[in-house]
Design brief:
CATH class of the largest domain: Alpha Beta
Shape: extended
Number of strands: 7
Number of domains: 2
Helix content: 10-25%
Strand order of the largest sheet: 4-6-7-5
Distance between the termini: 67 Å
Largest sheet: 4 strands, mixed
Strand content: 25-35%
Radius of gyration: 33 Å
CATH topology of the largest domain: Eukaryotic RPB6 RNA polymerase subunit
Structural class: alpha+beta
Number of helices: 4
CATH architecture of the largest domain: Alpha-Beta Complex
CATH superfamily of the largest domain: RPB5-like RNA polymerase subunit
Length: 146
């Protein structure tokens, strides 16, 4: 139950429906009005019905926070991708190196987390280069600094 004490002028306006009240300012939850006459004064009583009280609970709930943008979509982050085992083997043969000879990237790196790489995976990073056009780098994912 909600009661409002209003000036007589505002009471008349509300009686005539010019300022229809609502719960907590939410127009989706209108209030039913009832009138009582006590010693010649008109008082307005606003009552929220039980069916409307569930709407009030929903109206008070906080909306979930907006989804954060992906780090991979930022213009400063170059393109990363996990190589398949066949591609990794070809890269290692092409450069005549063992996986441990590649530069490392930590599994805790935000981009590594975003692409779902695991320790032991080889990541290809493609950066735009003013001189070479595209520059390709390879990194070995490791669980801790070695």
């Amino acid at each position: 139950m909600r009661r409002l004490s209003l000036s007589p002028a505002l009471k008349l306006n509300l009686i005539h429906g010019e300022d229809a009240p609502s719960f907590a300012g939410d127009p989706a939850i209108p209030l039913r009005t009832g009138f009582t006459l006590i010693s010649g004064l008109v008082s307005i009583v606003y009552v929220v019905s039980p069916a409307r009280s569930s709407r009030m609970k929903k109206a008070k709930r906080k909306a979930p926070p907006p989804e954060e943008p992906s780090i991979l979509e930022h213009f400063l982050v170059p393109k990363h991708r996990v190589l398949s085992p066949e591609e990794a083997k070809r890269v290692l043969e092409k450069y005549r190196v063992q996986p441990y000879q590649l530069p490392y990237i930590l599994v805790s790196d935000p981009v590594v987390k975003a692409i779902g790489a695991k320790p032991g995976d080889i990541i290809e990073i493609i950066r735009d280069s003013p001189t070479a056009g595209k520059a390709v780098y390879y990194r070995l994912v490791v669980s801790a600094e070695e």
